[in-house]
Amino acid sequence: FCAVLGALLVPLAYQCIWLLTHSIPASIFSAALILFDTGTLTLSRHILLDPILMFFIMTSTYSCLKFLTYSHKPFTLLWWVWLTNTGISLACALGVKFVGLFVILLVGYTTISDLWRLLGNHSISLVALSKHVTARVIGLILVPVLAYCVLFAVHLKVLDHSGNGDGFFSSAFQSQLIGNRLYNVSMPQYIAFGSEITLKQRRTGGAYLHSHFHLYPEEHPPKQQQVTTYSHKDDNNRWKIKPADREIGASDPLVYVQSGDLVRLEHVLTRRNLHSHKELAPLSKHHFQVSCYGQNGTGDANDIWIVDVEGASRGDKIQTVRSKIRFVHYHVRCLLHSHDKKLPKWGWEQLEVTCQPNLRDPTSMWSVEEVIDARLPNVSFEVYSPTFLEKLVESHAVMTQGNSGLKPKEGEVTSRPWQWPIDYRGQIFSGQDHRIYMLGNPIIFWSLLVIKVLFLVLWLAYSVGHKRKIPLNKNLQIYCERSFRVCWWLLLAWFLHYAPFWSMSRVLYFHHYFPAFLYSAMFGGVMLDFLVTLTCVCVPGHLAVKVFHFCFLLIAAGILWSFYLFHPLAYGMSGSLAAVEGSMMHNVKWLDSWDI
Question: What percent of the chain has pLDDT over 70?
């Protein structure tokens, strides 16, 4: 499937450039630069999201350009077909990856430019213009939103089983997942002293309050038991809630926990109490440390917490799932808090838990997810089931947080955006005996850099000549203006798909560049045709055809030769590494940064 979609990038690129230039050589060059790029080939040969994303980016671009060709036939059937297809393709691109947002910006810019052109056409009435605006709102806003929601409705319907990532979602969301401990379950609606509970932080991707037998290291005294948050279900997430001033006996009367109560939280497996003191937290130096302390449920006065339920009056019962709870430390006067900071190896890379001195901090909210107490009556968890819109919003919030918080694994090779256009370093796809290394075709990548510089020089020279009114053949002037206009649009498309990565703090990889590379390759194809045409203009007329054929064959041979040199990177290599003399790839390790 991915290979087919990757293969379709080539004819889509050809068609896009044909619609922009009506030049067969430019279309062939553009398609060839994508076809013979080893990086694009490597991505297309693997089961990844990238070829699917690039396919829908290209269908969005093609559909948008095709729609513009029907500008002289507005509101006809084909006009509506290509407008709607553009909207659906945009929804699919965004549905694959958030990078699809960049092609939405490109289509949005193109649409606004087209409407601006229509506004300047005095033969079009304001009523007709309003119809054009309405049609684009329908085709490029309403249709994509509807298609996107349908995609997620199908997604949520099909992927309805429990998995390792359940803990990133709210309790209500988890209750809809088959196999989850909260699915089709009944549990107490309220909690009582003596109940065993799990606490989940009420924020997007919030994790479970967690502890284990491991202690804080000596550099974070005192060496008490670690408290963290952990995104996965675990028996170490269970806590017993007790009154602050006594233990609960089997014969004691049932007493519900209420807002304003003083409580202790005893970790069920280790029998130590949740504890805080005025020692600094390991990572957040303006917060206080949270630990577990004591023996067999007995600790000291620093184990006492005040239960504060948002929006509740003193004496209101705490509800499972629904109540938003702050735990205020009785002596230190700080809030039980967690965030996305990961502890080092000694903390198993789980999330730091602290005591936050800001008592108004809105992120220090918790909810009770599970209650284990045979004394309490149960209610069905169905009462907490979220609507489709709530699930849609929550799933996007979790995805956004997870995406922005991605960090490299130990020893993993990452890259930064400045490295991508210069092909500074590739990406290892397989480190076995049959090695695959994703690297853009260096001849193509470096040629595109040179072509971009040449374009700026030629455009600047043309602009100066035009400003100085230097005479130029009329047909050549029209050709130059059209070519420059197309090149600027493709450069904008490349920039929109490339520049945003410079502002991202998350971990990045070389494969993130390839949607932008598609536009860079199409830009290169148009410019190669432009340069060949200029060369032919500069030679005597009887030689022009021969020069054109020579240049065309020279460029084609160069692209084919470069692919021949580097194709083992995509299809697989064996034997010695390229750094070893005698290796089959030794002569093509042109940069030390290439891990071939």
Answer: 98
